[in-house]
Write a structure and sequence with these properties.
This protein is α/β, with parallel strands linked by helices. The chain has 2 domains: 4-79 and 207-308, 3-Layer(aba) Sandwich (D-Maltodextrin-Binding Protein, domain 2), CATH 3.40.190.10; 86-204, D-Maltodextrin-Binding Protein, domain 2. It is built from 10 helices and 11 strands. A 6-stranded mixed sheet has the order 8-7-6-9-5-10, covered by helices on one side. Helix 1 (17-20) links the parallel strand 1 and strand 2. The radius of gyration is 20 Å and the shape is globular. The protein starts with a strand and ends in a 22-residue tail after the last helix. 43% of the residues are buried. The model has no long low-confidence stretch (mean pLDDT 96).
Length: 312
């Protein structure tokens, strides 16, 4: 019998290289790979374009809330212990995180995973009332059914968040493409942002999750064996990468991130399976409730293919 052909989309992270270069092959499956980009999330949750796709966690959670027919495989990636950069205009009088309260802050989209976690850190670690902030976004949510909270407005298409920050129309921005020059400053240096993330990790034991692997429900219904087969293949590919980390001659940004995380968590920087990630998933759902991505928490197990819940 011919292998089942699946269209997959993953990011260019080293842990998936084994699948892309053929060292790892999922049993009974032929992969047609597409390199993912942030637009992949929208294509998956709106158009169901891929059979298996790496999706930002907050997008996935929102998609599940609204009944989009995709399901998680407990393969997690893009993890880091840090805080997204916060830039501000010096004319706004911002000296500390609490000064962000009531201010006008720009970000690409309200449901972006990194900036959702950034808002949560501002709230949890510094007591910032993030609901008091007036947010301006340049894009709508990946999940079409999602409606922004009332303190979120979309900017005009002929404007950019970066220019609005420079002109003083915005007081600050989360993860904007700006350099700290002129009137623009960073609220935290990279080292300080890492310390914020590390403080949260040490206090809670929660290792934040950025991306999760998803599969179309149609594929699961017709071929339920695919989910565990893909889990095992992704896990094998990841193990090859982790085993090679220390010997990479010229490590890139993602490699250095993985090495740092391996030291911080005291082991595998990409733990797979629900047993090792249940605490983190529950914490991510709490963040998504607190930051108004979903109105109430969901059962973690209900988000993932049942025949993958006991895999590790």
């Amino acid at each position: 019998m011919a292998d089942l052909r699946l269209k997959t989309a993953t990011f260019p992270h080293g842990q998936w290289d084994g699948l892309k270069d053929g060292r790892v092959k999922p049993e009974g499956i032929e992969l047609g790979h597409v390199q993912a980009s942030p637009n992949t999330y929208r294509r998956m949750v709106r158009d169901l374009e891929f059979d298996v796709a790496e999706v930002a966690l907050t997008t996935f959670v929102a998609a599940k809330w609204f009944g989009i027919p995709i399901t998680g495989i407990p393969i997690f990636s893009n993890r880091d212990v840090t805080m997204s950069p916060i830039s501000y205009n010096v004319r706004a009088g911002i000296k500390s995180p609490k000064d962000l309260e009531g201010k006008r802050i720009g970000l690409r989209s309200y449901t972006v995973t990194n900036t959702t976690q950034c808002r949560a850190l501002l709230n949890y670690e510094f007591g910032v009332d993030t609901d008091s902030i007036r947010y301006s976004v340049s894009e709508d949510a990946h999940v079409a059914q999602y409606v922004n909270p009332p303190n979120v407005t979309q900017i005009a298409p002929d404007k950019t968040l970066e220019q609005m920050l420079a002109d003083g129309e915005l007081d600050a921005g989360l993860q904007l493409a700006v350099e700290p020059e002129g009137d623009i400053r960073l609220l935290f240096t990279e080292e300080e942002a890492n310390e914020v993330g590390l403080g949260f990790f040490k206090r809670t034991g929660v290792y934040p999750i950025g991306h999760v692997m998803t599969i179309k429900d149609e594929v699961l219904r017709e071929h339920p064996w695919v989910a565990p087969a893909m889990f095992r293949a992704f896990a094998e590919s990841k193990d090859l990468y982790v085993d090679s980390l220390s010997s990479i001659a010229d490590p890139g940004h993602r490699d250095l991130q993985a090495l740092r995380n391996r030291e911080l968590v005291g082991g595998d920087p990409f733990p797979m399976g629900m047993a090792k990630n249940r605490k983190a998933m529950e914490a991510m759902l709490r963040i998504d409730v607190d930051q108004h991505i979903i109105p109430e928490a969901m059962n973690v197990d209900s988000l993932f293919a049942p025949n993958t819940l006991n895999l590790d």
